[in-house]
C-alpha cells in the first residue's frame, strides 16, 4: 500500500477535467436543445442532442447575455464551446461561449467543414500550387458567356496581350444547376487539352450567388487540373473554396486577366517563390512554438480562479434547486396529511360531535401551518448558511469587507514596508475598482 498512488474521487475528477480541457480546443457543435433551464443566477443549463446521443451544456451569464437568441426546447442551435467536467458529480459537459441559431450559421459551418476536409488531404497546401507558364498562348475561361466577368477579362487582355487566344467554356455561375455545368465545362477543357492556363470565376454577388464555387466536387475537380488554374470569384473581399484550391487566387476577373498577361511575369514568379518560402518558414516557426504556447495557455486557463468560481456557481444553482424540490415535497406531504385527516373527520361525523371535531380540525390546521412555517424557516436558515459559507471563501468577499491589495510598478504584491521607497507609485485594488498613489512616508 505504501508504493501505491491512491486517488480520491475529487482528485480524479479534477485531473480528468484538466486533461480534457488541455487536450481539446474550442469546438463548434450543432444540435437540438432539450431540458433548457434558466437559473435564478442568470446561468443557462441545457442538453444538446441529435438522433443518437446527447451532451450537457452550461452557458454562464457573462457569455449568454451576449447571445443573439435565448434557446428554446426543440430548437436547432450552433454553439462554440470548451469541453470540461463538472467535478462534484463527475459529469462531462460543454461550457458554451457563443450561441446562434443553426439556420444562420449553417452555410458558414458547411464552408468550414469542406475547407477542413480539403486541408486535411493536402489539397490546399502551398507546395502543390503551380506558377503560371512564362508564355501563355491560349487561355481558357470557364464562366458565363454573357456576364460582366468575361467582358472585363477580354477588355484587359485586348489591352495587355492582344495576341493571346481565348477559348470560352460556357457555364452557369449561380443557381442549382451551376455546379454541374461548371464541372462539365472544366472536364471538357481537360479533355480537349488545348490551353496553357484556365481562369474560372464570375463577378460579385451575395453569398448565395457565389455558393456554387464552395462546392466540394468542383474544388476536387479544380485540384486535378492538368494546367494552372486562376480562381477569380466575386470582389476582393469574397473568398470561396475555389480560391483556396486553385493555383492562384485573383481578387477580381480583371485582376486575373492582368496576372495571365503580366509584362513582368518572371518578377512575379520570383516574388511568389520568396513569399512561399517566407510563409513556409513562418509556418515552421509557428508549428514549433504553437504546442508549447497552447499547453502553457491551457494549463493557465485550467487553474484560473474563474474556473473554480464557475464550478462553485454551478454547485450553488444545484443546491438551490434541491432545496426547492425538498420544500415542495414536504409541502405535498403536509397536504396529503391534511386530506387524510379530513377524510377521517368525514367518516366520524355524528351531528352531536360535529362542533367538537370542527374545533379539533381548526386546531390541527393551526398546528400544521405552524409546523410548515417552522420547516420553511429552518430550510431557509440552512440555505442562508450555505450561501454565507460559500461567500466566505470568495476572494471578492474579502475585498468587500474593506481589505485591499497593493502592487508595485512590476505588478508584484506588496507585503512589507521595506519593499517601498518614497516617491514610488503604488496601485491598490479595492472591492470595486482601484487607485494609484505616490508614497510620501514609510512606517517601518
TrEMBL record:
Main location: cytoplasm
KW Transmembrane helix (keyword) present: no
Localisation per UniProt entry: Cytoplasm
Keywords: Coiled coil, Cytoplasm, Exonuclease, Hydrolase, Nuclease
One MF term in the entry's GO annotations: exodeoxyribonuclease VII activity
Coiled coil: 324-382
Superkingdom as given in the UniProt entry: Bacteria
InterPro entries according to UniProt: Exonuc_VII_L (IPR003753), Exonuc_VII_lsu_C (IPR020579), OB-fold_nuc-bd_dom (IPR025824)
Entry's family note: Belongs to the XseA family.
Subunit note: Heterooligomer composed of large and small subunits.
Protein's UniProt name: Exodeoxyribonuclease 7 large subunit
Organism: Alkalimonas mucilaginosa
Protein's gene: xseA
Amino acid at each position: 500500500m505504501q508504493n501505491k498512488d491512491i486517488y480520491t474521487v475529487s482528485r480524479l475528477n479534477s485531473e480528468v477535467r484538466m486533461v480534457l480541457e488541455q487536450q481539446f480546443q474550442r469546438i463548434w457543435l450543432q444540435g437540438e436543445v432539450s431540458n433548457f433551464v434558466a437559473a435564478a443566477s442568470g446561468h443557462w443549463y441545457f442538453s444538446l442532442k441529435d438522433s443518437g446521443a446527447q451532451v450537457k451544456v452550461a452557458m454562464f451569464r457573462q457569455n449568454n447575455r451576449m447571445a443573439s437568441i435565448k434557446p428554446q426546447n426543440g430548437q436547432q442551435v450552433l454553439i462554440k464551446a470548451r469541453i470540461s467536467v463538472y467535478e462534484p458529480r463527475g459529469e462531462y459537459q460543454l461550457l458554451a461561449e457563443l450561441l446562434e441559431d443553426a439556420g444562420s450559421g449553417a452555410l458558414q459551418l458547411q464552408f468550414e467543414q469542406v475547407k477542413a476536409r480539403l486541408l486535411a488531404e493536402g489539397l490546399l497546401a502551398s507546395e502543390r500550387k503551380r506558377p503560371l507558364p512564362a508564355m501563355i498562348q491560349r487561355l481558357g475561361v470557364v464562366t458565363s458567356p454573357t456576364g460582366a466577368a468575361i467582358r472585363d477579362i477580354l477588355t484587359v487582355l485586348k489591352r495587355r496581350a492582344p495576341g493571346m487566344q481565348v477559348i470560352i467554356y460556357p457555364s452557369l455561375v449561380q443557381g442549382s444547376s451551376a455546379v454541374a455545368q461548371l464541372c462539365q465545362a472544366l472536364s471538357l477543357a481537360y479533355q480537349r487539352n488545348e490551353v496553357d492556363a484556365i481562369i474560372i470565376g464570375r463577378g460579385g454577388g451575395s453569398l448565395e450567388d457565389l455558393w456554387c464555387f464552395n462546392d466540394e466536387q468542383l474544388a476536387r475537380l479544380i485540384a486535378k487540373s492538368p494546367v494552372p488554374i486562376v480562381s477569380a470569384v466575386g470582389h476582393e473581399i469574397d473568398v470561396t473554396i475555389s480560391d483556396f484550391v486553385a493555383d492562384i487566387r485573383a481578387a477580381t476577373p480583371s485582376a486575373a486577366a492582368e496576372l495571365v498577361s503580366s509584362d513582368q511575369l518572371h518578377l512575379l514568379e520570383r516574388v511568389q517563390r520568396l513569399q512561399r518560402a517566407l510563409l513556409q518558414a513562418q509556418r515552421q516557426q509557428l508549428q514549433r512554438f504553437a504546442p508549447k504556447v497552447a499547453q502553457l495557455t491551457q494549463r493557465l486557463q485550467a487553474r484560473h480562479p474563474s474556473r473554480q468560481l464557475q464550478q462553485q456557481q454551478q454547485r450553488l444553482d444545484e443546491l438551490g434547486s434541491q432545496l426547492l424540490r425538498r420544500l415542495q415535497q414536504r409541502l405535498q406531504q403536509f397536504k396529503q396529511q391534511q386530506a387524510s385527516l379530513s377524510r377521517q373527520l368525514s367518516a366520524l361525523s355524528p351531528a352531536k360531535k360535529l362542533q367538537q371535531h370542527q374545533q379539533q380540525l381548526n386546531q390541527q390546521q393551526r398546528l400544521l401551518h405552524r409546523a410548515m412555517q417552522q420547516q420553511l424557516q429552518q430550510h431557509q436558515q440552512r440555505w442562508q448558511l450555505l450561501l454565507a459559507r460559500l461567500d466566505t471563501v470568495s476572494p471578492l468577499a474579502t475585498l468587500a469587507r474593506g481589505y485591499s491589495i497593493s502592487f508595485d510598478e512590476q505588478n508584484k504584491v506588496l507585503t512589507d514596508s521595506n519593499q517601498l521607497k518614497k516617491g514610488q507609485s503604488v496601485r491598490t485594488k479595492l472591492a470595486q475598482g482601484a487607485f494609484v498613489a505616490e508614497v510620501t512616508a514609510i512606517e517601518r
